[in-house]
Amino acid sequence: MTQKDINSKYTAVVAEFMAKGYTINAGTMSGSQGEMAHIDLTNGEEIIRVLLDSFTWGFCQHGLEIVVGRVTDNVEPNKRDGVGATVWNNHLEVLYSEQFYELGEHRDYEKWYGTKEEAETKNVKQEARYENRRVINTKDFSEDAKQVVLTFVKRQPKCKSVKVSDITKVQKVVRVNSFTGKVNISYKVTAKGTEYILR
Fold this sequence. Notes:
With 199 residues, the protein is an alpha+beta fold. The chain is elongated, with a radius of gyration of 29 Å. The relative contact order is 0.11.
């Protein structure tokens, strides 16, 4: 789904109200609170705002949202713009909302959108790809290394009685980020099925 598709959905929502006899309420439509678009409609008794706005979720994830809300501010329909004619988006009585989660961007910078489930699936795949871009090299140390790390293991919680025979592996792990070239080296000990990072 692209911006064009969202525009069509937004238009359909507005058209549905106009088909019920609502007309544009121009007096409340000046100004912006940072939203992408808003249209105010009235049937002479109430004002309905149809809002297209952005939202964030998760860790710096973005999307667009259509919100239909009844105006609760003390604003009269069919009056010209003036003092006291401001409709605050965060005061709306929300009647309907639909969210479109950003999934990616084409090479021409056009974004495309989908459901939250699709966005979550995309995030899982991206994380897996990110991990696959790391080059990992693991080296196992000899049996002598177990004796060297025994004191360290004994200092870990509930490990005071650990013996050399309980240590199954001592490893050097090298990770290289294929984007930045940054090298990270760590040393890992496995004892009684639990892994510990040497610090």
